[in-house]
């Protein structure tokens, strides 16, 4: 149930247009009558054209044209988007004047394209007033004769009506810029309204970056106060300045009721510490005095507009200008504040990369102060607000929802834009929606452009980002703001959005109940209004009770704001008349639709009758996509076939319970590359091994008999065809190591017909689904070798030790042997890769293996395995690719992490680039490594180069034709932050949009922590879904990703390189590197293992290691 801050009643306003005079609201209704017909015509056009294109497409390349359009149906180059954008009024209903140089200020005329909410229409009197005001600025502004005379008059400190230099013909208002950007914008808008009401030329203090942030709002003139302004110390004016209007009243230098000379200028002090005399500015008599003073200098950091509505002298004109009183700042802000090209680039690049393709955008502005700690109570307030007001969906905390793939609902995408000085709140909300599914199935991606940590007054880059973030918030469909924040006030006004405002908390632990409410209007709050309005008696009166459309603010109860209270009778009557005539309009609309149906039906009969075959499928898919939105974040254009090979060419078998492991059969739908095809012999071998696992695995009579044999301390006397042998793989070290070790163990188990049993420790039982049907690959509890996880060099049953001590020479096979292939393996341990030793090991029923490496290249050196390996893997560089896709299916929890991130960040990008940065927790951030990453990606064409800061952005109003999504994985966030900042703050040479994101940054590698491993596994899988991959040399994390994805990566050096070396190299294959390869042949002579067979070579990233390549030449 939504919480409203206040109930707006209908109360008669003050003076309205004379009888018979058409007002802006009635004109809007008249325009809507035409708009209805035009929109129906537009829809008719869209409905008719696609079938026509298909029917007559032989000459046009039929499905290609439609596909090209449909490919962007939900993106920023959508046909629908551009048709709608083309119909938008770039002049905002006449608010803006035509004729500006578009290249010098692209935001002025482009901004309408980025708003789903077209905004409120300005009244005709306001449009007329603005054009007259522009004439005043041109006639009296800097550089004119009138301005020169006025400055000379001010310099002489002449008196109005005095001798010497005559009284100037133009009057001026200089607005001092200070405090935060939101304050400056509200103050400027307030000064502008006052200047319009009093026919003064507005001149804005250019300090505090005001000359660096916004384009000139007035044509052919400037609104900036020239640096040569005679009052050189005006920026230091304060409550004690002698020339302040309040002090002159206090000292009887000037009085409202006494005629006489007035000064050349007066300082109007409306800051937070203004006095009772300063507040008389809001009195009619005092305004009459101020009208006679040629120059006013105003200081305020507030939105004083509600105070102007309290003045009887202005009420009639204000009613004419703003019949819809809640739109004052909405109109003034959109008229005045056009971000300059640099800031507009920040806005558009971020919008295109992170917001454009989502169906709903929610802005959240969290006001915190730099020294303030991260407050769980504030986080709770934010999440309760968005949940209670149905702005964001609730999350499921008890596990993943289980949906059959064929019954998945269409998924709505929501992008959350957070603006805050700190990143903690964003990180928490982002993690919540990544780590948990939503109850509605909606995909929620959370983004934050920057987090400066402290407010940096006077910093150009800080203000530029703040301005961009205000504007981005204003593009939201729904907005949550912090009570009393001018930052939020500006965003809501620019966007024409009535926000949900979070109440100001009593302390750092309290959570208000309710946490927020829907504000009364989109107008900002005047946070410190005058505490009186009876100016004649100077009596204290609550300013929120003087006129019905000025009410007390709910976020700042002592402040006041504008609300809409009633329409004049004239508007009400015309509205009623227009509504009464609505039937005619709808009869016209129905007629147009009927004609459209008659025109569409014949082609559709042909299309869907199957006469044109595949073209009909494309139309059906496009219609479904337009009607229902993206399915699971995947466009039908990206995956043009109606079904994916969920069995991966026979690698997998059908028949598993799909709900228990969604990833097994869904993963193919998320890959743009189908991957390599397995050989028929490998498929046959896998089916045979599955039978072996079922026949001999845990729970079978054979397994029980083998356990009893193990307990006896001896292997069976002789091998028999029915005897089952076993390989236990110990799980340890990082996740990448564990996956490579398990894959290696499985390869060896297949080659030697052993049942593979994986140590369930180190979360292996919580990360992966069972790969074998009807059995388990996990070593059950109660295994007789209770201390097997601690087996190491000291273990007596270590094969290398027994070999060294000639224990096996007696011919009696032990009950088990421990295979030690860790980094410190001895030369005797390496004899594991010899034919003679393999024959000896085949007699031992139980083997326990410890390795954290990918030992498969070593198996290729064993002659007795080579023939079968060649048949299993004719493409030698695809061994892990096949084994990994067969074995490692993320559990539903991990798969939820993968799919939610994919839908939120990767699904709609034209290109996906993965960057895996391996750093140790103790390593400091390295600018050299960052430069290496940047050079690698740009020099190899993986990502576009950025334009230099000094280079002017293109002036054409174009949207990017290509987008890249970059997923960065790293323990630290610094590299991601820098890359994201680079592509946000600088445009690309190609115009390509680049979105950079990082799922998590744990800062430290947390061994044995389930949540840490789940995120790591999800990130490995996400890297494998990219189109191009950059990895860090020697990283097992990267090895797994490249193998699963079938990607040959670009490899970054593990250490810094000199200036002449390339920043990265394309690897020789997608296979992982065997780091600790054997150094001796089986006859104990030293040799180079990288030269024995042509498809085993030394690794580029670790020269002493070995890896598989697809070569047959010697």
UniProtKB/TrEMBL annotation:
Q: What family name appears in the similarity comment?
A: Belongs to the glycosyltransferase 37 family.
Q: What protein is this chain from? A: Fucosyltransferase
Cell compartment(s), UniProt: Golgi apparatus
One GO MF term, please?
Answer: galactoside 2-alpha-L-fucosyltransferase activity
InterPro entries named in the record: XG_FTase
Say yes or no: keyword Membrane present.
Answer: yes
An example Pfam family from this entry, by short name, is XG_FTase
**Chief site of localization:** Golgi
* Transmembrane residue ranges: 586-608
In the UniProt record, does the keyword Transmembrane occur?
yes
Q: Which UniProt keywords apply?
A: Cell wall biogenesis/degradation, Glycoprotein, Glycosyltransferase, Golgi apparatus, Membrane, Transferase, Transmembrane, Transmembrane helix
Q: Which GO terms describe its cellular component?
A: Golgi apparatus; membrane
Which biological processes are named by the entry's GO terms?
cell wall biogenesis; cell wall organization; xyloglucan biosynthetic process
Upper taxonomic classification of the species?
A: Eukaryota, Viridiplantae, Streptophyta, Embryophyta, Tracheophyta
């Amino acid at each position: 149930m939504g919480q409203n801050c206040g109930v707006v009643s209908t109360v008669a306003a003050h003076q309205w247009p004379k009888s018979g005079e058409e007002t802006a609201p009635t004109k809007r209704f008249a325009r809507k009558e035409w708009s209805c017909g035009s929109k129906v015509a537009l829809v008719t056009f869209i409905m008719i054209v696609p079938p026509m294109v298909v029917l007559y497409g032989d000459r046009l390349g039929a499905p290609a044209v439609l596909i090209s359009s449909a490919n962007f149906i939900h993106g920023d180059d959508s046909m629908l988007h551009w048709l709608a954008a083309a119909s938008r009024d770039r002049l905002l209903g006449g608010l803006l004047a035509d004729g500006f140089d578009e290249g010098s200020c692209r935001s002025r005329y482009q901004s309408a394209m980025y708003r789903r909410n077209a905004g409120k229409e300005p009244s005709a009197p306001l449009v007329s007033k603005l054009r007259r005001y522009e004439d005043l600025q041109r006639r009296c502004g800097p550089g004119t004769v009138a301005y020169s005379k006025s400055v000379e008059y001010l310099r002489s400190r002449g008196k109005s009506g005095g001798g010497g230099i005559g009284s100037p013909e133009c009057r001026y208002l200089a607005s001092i810029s200070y405090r935060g950007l939101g304050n400056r914008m509200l103050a400027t808008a307030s000064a502008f309204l006052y200047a319009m009401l009093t026919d003064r030329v507005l001149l804005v203090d250019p300090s505090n970056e005001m000359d660096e942030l916004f384009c000139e709002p007035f044509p052919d003139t400037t609104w900036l106060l020239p640096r040569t302004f005679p009052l050189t110390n005006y920026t230091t004016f304060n409550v004690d300045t002698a020339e302040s209007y309040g002090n002159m009243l206090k000292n009887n230098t000037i009085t409202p009721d006494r005629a006489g000379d007035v000064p050349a200028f007066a300082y109007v002090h409306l800051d937070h510490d203004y006095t009772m005399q300063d507040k008389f500015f809001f009195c009619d008599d005092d305004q009459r005095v101020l009208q006679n003073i040629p120059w006013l200098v105003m200081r305020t950091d507030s939105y004083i507009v509600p105070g102007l509505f309290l003045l009887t002298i202005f009420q009639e004109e204000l009613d004419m200008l703003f019949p819809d009183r809640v739109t004052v700042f909405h109109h003034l802000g959109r008229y005045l504040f056009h971000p300059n090209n640099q800031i507009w680039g920040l806005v558009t690049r971020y919008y295109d990369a992170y917001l454009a393709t989502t169906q709903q955008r929610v802005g959240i502005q969290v006001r915190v102060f730099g020294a303030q700690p991260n407050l769980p109570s504030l986080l709770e307030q934010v999440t309760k607000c968005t949940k209670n007001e149905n702005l964001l969906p609730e999350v499921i905390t008890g596990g993943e929802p289980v949906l059959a793939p064929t019954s998945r609902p269409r998924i709505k995408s929501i992008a959350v834009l957070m603006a805050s000085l700190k990143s903690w709140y964003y990180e928490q909300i982002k993690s919540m929606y990544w780590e948990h599914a939503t109850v509605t199935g909606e995909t929620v991606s959370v983004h934050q452009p920057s987090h400066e940590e402290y407010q940096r007054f006077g910093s150009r880059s800080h203000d530029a980002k703040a301005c961009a973030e205000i504007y981005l918030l204003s593009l939201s469909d729904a907005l949550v703001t912090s009570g009393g924040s001018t930052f939020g006030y500006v965003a809501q006004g620019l966007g024409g959005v009535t926000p949900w405002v979070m109440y100001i908390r009593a302390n750092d632990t309290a959570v208000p109940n309710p946490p927020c409410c829907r504000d009364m209007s989109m107008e900002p709050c005047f946070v410190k209004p005058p505490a009186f309005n009876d100016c004649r008696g100077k009596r204290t009166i609550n300013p929120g009770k003087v006129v019905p459309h000025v009410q007390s603010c709910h976020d700042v109860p002592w402040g006041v704001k504008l609300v809409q209270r009633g329409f004049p009778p004239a508007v009400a009557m015309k509205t009623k008349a227009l509504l009464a005539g609505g039937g005619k309009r709808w009869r016209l609309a129905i007629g147009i639709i009927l004609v459209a149906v008659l025109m569409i039906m014949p082609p559709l009969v042909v299309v869907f009758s199957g006469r044109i075959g595949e073209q009909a499928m494309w139309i059906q898919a496009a219609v479904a996509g337009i009607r229902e939105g993206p399915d699971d974040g995947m466009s039908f254009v990206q995956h043009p076939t109606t079904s994916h090979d969920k069995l991966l060419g026979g690698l997998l078998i059908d028949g598993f319970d799909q709900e228990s492991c969604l990833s097994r059969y869904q993963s193919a739908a998320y890959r743009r590359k189908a991957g390599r095809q397995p050989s028929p012999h490998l498929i046959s071998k896998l089916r045979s091994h599955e039978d072996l696992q079922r026949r001999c695995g845990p729970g079978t009579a054979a397994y029980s008999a083998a356990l009893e044999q193990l307990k006896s301390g001896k292997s069976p006397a002789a091998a028999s065809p029915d005897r089952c042998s076993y390989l236990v793989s110990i799980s340890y070290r990082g996740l990448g190591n564990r996956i490579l070790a398990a894959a290696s163990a499985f390869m060896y188990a297949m080659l030697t017909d052993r049942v593979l049993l994986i140590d369930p420790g180190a979360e292996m039982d919580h990360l992966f689904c069972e790969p074998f049907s009807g059995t388990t690959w996990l070593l059950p509890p109660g295994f007789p070798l209770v201390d097997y996880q601690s087996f190491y060099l000291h273990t007596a049953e270590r094969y290398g030790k027994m070999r060294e001590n000639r224990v096996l020479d007696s011919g009696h096979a032990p009950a088990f042997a421990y295979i030690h292939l860790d980094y410190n393996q001895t030369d005797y341990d390496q004899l594991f890769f010899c034919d003679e030793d393999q024959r000896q090991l085949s007699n031992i029923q139980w083997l326990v293996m410890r390795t954290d490496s990918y030992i498969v290249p070593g198996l290729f050196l064993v002659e007795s395995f080579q023939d079968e390996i060649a048949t299993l893997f004719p493409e030698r560089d695809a061994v892990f690719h096949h084994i990994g896709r067969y074995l490692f299916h993320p559990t539903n929890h991990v798969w939820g992490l993968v799919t939610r991130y994919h839908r939120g960040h990767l699904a709609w990008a034209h290109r996906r680039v993965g960057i895996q940065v391996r750093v140790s927790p103790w390593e400091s951030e390295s600018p050299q490594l960052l430069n290496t990453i940047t050079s690698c990606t740009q020099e190899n064409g993986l990502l576009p180069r950025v334009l230099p800061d000094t280079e002017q952005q293109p002036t054409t109003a174009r949207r990017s034709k290509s987008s890249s999504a970059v997923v960065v994985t790293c323990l630290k966030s610094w590299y991601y932050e820098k890359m994201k900042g680079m592509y946000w703050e600088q445009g690309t040479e190609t115009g390509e949009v680049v979105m950079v994101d990082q799922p998590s940054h744990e800062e430290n590698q947390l061994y044995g922590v389930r949540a840490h491993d789940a995120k790591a596994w999800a990130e490995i899988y996400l890297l494998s879904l990219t189109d191009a991959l950059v990895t860090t040399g020697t990283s097992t994390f990267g090895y797994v990703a490249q193998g699963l994805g079938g990607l040959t990566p670009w490899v970054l050096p593990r250490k810094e390189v000199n200036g002449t070396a390339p920043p990265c190299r394309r690897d020789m294959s997608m296979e992982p590197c065997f780091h600790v390869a054997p150094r001796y042949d089986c006859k104990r002579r030293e040799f180079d293992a990288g030269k024995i067979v042509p498809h085993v070579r030394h690794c580029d990233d670790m020269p002493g290691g070995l890896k598989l390549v697809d070569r047959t030449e010697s």
